[in-house]
Here is the input.
Amino acid sequence: MKVAVLALQGAFIEHEQVLQRLGVETVEIRQLKDWQQPIDALILPGGESTVQMRLLKELGLLEPIRQAIADGMPVLGTCAGMILLSQGYLGTMHIRVRRNAYGRQLGSFHTTGSVEGIGDDVPMTFIRAPYIEEVLSADCQPIAEVDGHIVAARQGNQIATAFHPELDDDTRLHQLLISLQ
Ligand code: GLN
Here is the structure.
């Protein structure tokens, strides 16, 4: 299988390294022609969601990627990638997200927690992180909470995390992504 990693900006290399450790072929999406090949799953990395959105539009990638996700392509969106999946951005996930939700001082922290469908003791590194303010439909489920805030959700083949699984030594979320077809 081949997993695409959006490589316009942000923390994409770390995702590629996790996938390589799992023995999965990766392809970087930098322009429209990179998208025009058989792809089995997609990772939207952390970074700066406003910059990523602008580049997706400028490069003509926004609509093809949105359509593929809407058609069921498995996707993992982390941090800014979760913002991209939310309402007002690509809008494929029925979640409303608050950007930079922890403020400047508490914007970056590490904890561990349970993720439904993954297990316990999942390491969670937050960097100027968003959280999910509201899940907007019944086909979208919150799968993790930290301090009373939703920090991960799943809707069919779409997985979104406010934290950065690629920065810790735990590959379970990536394994979940590649198990989806
Ligand atoms: N604060 C960033 C945003 O709003 C997200 C930060 C991250 O991806 N680590 O896009």
About this structure: The radius of gyration is 15 Å.
